[in-house]
Amino acid sequence: MKCIAITGTTGFVGQNLVPYLKKSGFRIKSISRETLNNLEVDLVAADAVIHLAGKAHDLKKHVNPDEYYKVNFELTKHLYNSFLTSKASKFIFISSVKAAADEICGILDEDVKPNPLSDYGKSKLMAEEYIKSQTLPIGKSYYILRPCMIHGPGNKGNLNLLFKVVQKGLPYPLAAFHNERSFLSVSNLNLVLGSFLTDHIDCGIYNIADDQSLSTNDVVLIIGEALGFKSKLWKLNPTLVFAFAKLSGFLQLPLTPERLIKLTESYVVSNEKVKRALKITSFPTSSKEGLIETIISFKKS
Fold it and tell me: How many domains would you assign to the chain?
């Protein structure tokens, strides 16, 4: 039985991943934030490391920018240095598509030249570049995974906001915006992580996304379907919506300009490279199936 050292086990992804790996026969060693701050992280007996912990992107801009670099870069650097001198053979870093680009035109793949604009994306990219720059001892591998928006039981954020709007029977007012977004079911992410732990896969960067992209309007309709009724879509004038979002941001109301962009922008991510690496043609969970599972978990909570 292999022992996997994991940071961020109490987070959304960690709470879904740990039971999945235990069911697959792995032993889990949880690494706390306090442990990460030690001079040397104890990786004794660990066969692999999965680094989930990080400072999430704060759309409300309440986070001090320095916090992103301290957590997403410095702690990753510290943990990776401990990995290099340990007996563990694999290091998996959960980065983000935002390390490549905050905005994209077309479909994002791994060949794009990174140009993040936010401190969140820049800090993730710095961690990636540090990992790639270090000499890798024989027998060790690193994997940098760039997931897009992850959904599943325990998820929070914009998906939860949409759920609350639809659940209350309120019309979704942004239907005039046409977009396409990639999502990632946490069950598909679990599959990827489990496979990277057991299979022989080349080191490198891998985008992780479900096979299908969806518009936000699609997501609203799926939420209504999971709740047992048809969602209401309103096509308000986009100019008026942007003006309201600016006022909302000033008054600290939910629909800030940043959140409006998040809900209406297009962001499609290619998952072809990771599927080739795993020798699969499709992921088992579709975007719609994963979203319905997420909404059902919201209903239960």
Answer: 1
